[in-house]
Amino acid sequence: MHSLLLFFTLFFNSPHSLQQLRELFPLIGLSESSNKKMMELTENNSQLNIPIKKAYLASAKMASAKFKTFPLAKYQAFLEGKNLLEESVALDKQNPEIRFVRFVIQSNLPSFLFYSQNISEDKAFITKSLPVLKTTDPDLHQRIVNYFGKK
């Protein structure tokens, strides 16, 4: 039974696909092509863990607001992404990567959107998770350390 669980964990958490999402994440608000690529990877990739996939899709949907023309379309894209991101967090509250995605999003949104209530909580959780991530997921650890170093 344990080996079956390990197989499914490895199969559904393809490191190659996750690596692509991590590389695209900082670019989704900078270029529409990167944003579309993130949406394609998350909407059509059944190999990713569902909560992580949903978090990255949510981030792309929120960032897509930047590329919309009409204010209502911008706000709808933001709301759709926000709801997806909160679903993702609810599905896996102990996942530091999902919490990092939410932290980055909330830290960079304009204050008039009133979506910043989890910044302190997420930062504390992420910081507490860093020692474990250093050995379990060095790539994510380095990305988080680099992000915090820029702030």
Task: List descriptors.
151 residues; disordered N terminus
3D structure, described in words:
The chain is globular. By secondary structure, the chain is an all-alpha fold. It has one domain. Residues 1-13 have low confidence and may be disordered. It has eight helices and no strands.
Q: Tell me, rounded to a whole number, the average pLDDT.
A: 88
Radius of gyration: 15 Å
| The number of domains | 1
N- to C-terminal separation? Answer: 44 Å
Decide which structural class fits the backbone. Answer: mainly alpha
Strand fraction: under 5%
By DSSP, the count of extended strands is: 0
Number of helices: 8
* Helix content estimate: over 70%
Instruction: Provide the succession of SSEs.
Output: HHHHHHHH
Largest sheet: none
Broad shape: globular
> Which residue ranges are poorly predicted, with pLDDT under 50 across at least 5 consecutive positions?
1-13
In short:
The protein is mainly α and 151 residues long. The protein has one domain.
Produce the secondary structure layout:
Layout: H1 2-12, H2 15-24, H3 32-43, H4 50-64, H5 71-91, H6 96-108, H7 119-136, H8 138-150
